[in-house]
Amino acid sequence: MRVAMITWEYPPRIVGGIARHCEGLAKALTQQGHEVHVFGLDFPGAPDYEEQAGIRIYRTRSEVGHPNFLTWVLLFNHYIEKRMADTSKLVDFDVLHVHDWLTAPTGIAFKHFARKPLVFTAHSTEHGRSGLHIPDSFTIDGLEWWSTYEASKVIVTSGSLKGEVCGHFHVSDSKVEVIPNAINPTPYEGSVDRGAVRARWGIQPHEKLVLCVGRLVPQKGIEYLIHAVPIMARRRPETKFIIVGDGWYRDHLEYLANTSGQRWRITFTGFISDWDLTALTKSADTMVVPSIYEPFGIVALEGMAAGVPVVASQIGGLTEFIEHDRTGVFVYPRNPESIAWGIDHVLSNPGHAEWLVKNAREVVRKTYSWEAVAKRTAKVYKEVIG
Amino acid sequence: MSLPSQPQVPEEFRVLSMMHNIGAVTPERSLTADELAQWTGMDPATIKAFVQKLREEGYVEFVQVSGTEKYHVTRTGIMKVLTLYS
C-alpha cells in the first residue's frame, strides 16, 4: 500500500510521543513492504526532502506566518496540502493517515480532493490536555471532532483514550480502534558505564537517582513529584532527582523547586540528546511518571525497556500496560505522599525492584513492538480501502 | 479527565511562540526588535527585554546585519514552543 502519513512532528522535529510514534510506524510499515510518504513541517538543518531507509520524507516550509497559533496552523496546512497535491501527480496514494488535529485540515481536504480514505490517529484530546477554557481550545476541540467525523477509522493508543474519544465526540465504538504505542528496544540493549553517567550528572556512588522524563507542562504532574522531594529527603536523604525535558511550565516548576528547601537535590536538564537520555535512563534507580493526564505514556514503556523500575500514576493508558507490583508500581495521581511511598517502595526493596524490571522487560518485548503495531495499522488501512 | 484550570503561560513564552509562528526560526529569517514589535503589536522595549531573557536561556539567538541585531528562535526554542500544543 502507498501511505501518505501527515504529521506536524517527525524527527528531528521532536517534542512529545507523536514524532517517535510516526517514525516507528513508518519504519515498520516500510519494512513490511508498504510505501510510506511522510508529509510534515520543516526544521532548521533538515532537508526539504529525503529518503531514510525507504521512507520518503517531505518537509514543508510555511511561507507565510502569523503570530496567532491557530492562524499559523491553518496556513502551514495549506502549504503541506500544496506539497501533497504536487506529489500526488506522481504517486497514487491508497490511504491518508493524519496524526492529531494539527494536520487534520490537510488530510480532510485531500480526502475529498483525491477521494481516498482517511485514517485519523488521536494521540490525545484538547479536552483532556487542557480542558476547554479559552476560545482556541474550543477551536481545537472542534477540529478534533471534525477529524473523527471525516475519518473512516479512528485509531487511539489506549482503551482509556478510546473512552474519551467515544464519549466526548460521540463517535461509535466500532469506528475506533485501539492500537497501542510501541518502542524500539535496540538503544536500551547496549551497556553503559553507569558510574560515569551518574558522575557526569553529579550523582555520587552512594546516592539514589530518581529520574523523571517529559514535557514540562501541567498534565505531566511534575509539580507533585517536586512536592514529594522533601518527603523523600526525610525518608532517604541519599536521594537525588533529575528532571529531563523542557516546556512552557518550566519556570513555575523551577520556582517550586527553589522554594522546596531541597533545590540542591533537583536538576533540570532541559532537552538532552537521545543518547544521553538512554544512558541516563539506564543509570537511574527508578523512573517516576507522575502524570495527571496520560493517554498512553510511552516514556514509562521506555523506562521498562531500559531496565529501570517504573513508579507511575494510576491513570489513563498507564493502567493498561503496567501491572501494580508486578511490572511497576502505581501511585495516586496528584498525591506527593503516595509518590514518595512508591519511590521508597522501589528503593527499599532492590530484590523486588529487580523482579519488577524482569517482568516489565518481558511485557515490553512480547507486546509493544513496532512490527506488531504496523501489522495492526495495515489491517485498518486494508479495511478502509475496502 | 480535564485539569481544573489552565495555568498562565509566561509572557516571554508568548513572545517566543509568536516569533516561531511568524517564521523567525533561522538566521536568514531573523527579525529586528522593531520588526518583531510590529508583527506582535508589542512595544519594542518590551520585546527587547523578553528577547534578552530568551537569549540567556538559549531559546533565541541573534545575528548582526549592518550593525543591527536580528533575532530568531533556536532549535531548542522551537521544541519548547511545540510543548504548548503537542
Structure description:
The complex is a heterodimer of chains A (386) and B (86). The two termini of chain A are 12 Å apart. Chain A has two domains: 2-182 and 369-385, Rossmann fold (3-Layer(aba) Sandwich); 186-367, 3-Layer(aba) Sandwich (Rossmann fold), CATH 3.40.50.2000. Chain A contains 16 helices and 14 strands. Chain A has helices at residues 17-31, 69-87, 104-114, 126-129, 135-150, 159-169, 186-189, 194-200, 222-235, 250-258, 274-283, 298-306, 318-321, 336-348, 350-367, 370-385, and strands spanning 2-6, 35-41, 49-52, 55-60, 95-99, 118-122, 153-156, 176-178, 208-213, 239-244, 266-270, 286-289, 310-313, 329-331. Chain A has 386 residues and is of the alpha/beta class. In chain A, helix 1 (17-31) packs across helix 16 and helix 12 packs across helix 15 (350-367). Helices cover 47% and strands 17% of the residues of chain A. Chain B is of the alpha+beta class. Chain B has one domain: Orthogonal Bundle (Arc Repressor Mutant, subunit A), CATH 1.10.10.10. In chain B, 47% of the residues lie in helices and 16% in strands. Chain B contains four helices and three strands, in the order αβααββα. Chain B has helices at residues 11-21, 33-40, 44-56, 75-82; strands spanning 31-32, 60-65, 68-73. In chain B, strands 1-3-2 form a three-stranded antiparallel sheet. The longest helix of chain B is centred in the middle third of the chain and has 13 residues, at 44-56. The A-B interface holds A 9, 12-16, 18, 43-45, 62, 64-69, 71-72, 102, 127-128, 130-134, 137, 215-219, 246-249, 251-252, 270-271, 292-293, 315 and B 1-7, 9-10, 13, 17-18, 21-23, 25-26, 39-41, 58, 75-76, 78-80, 82-86.
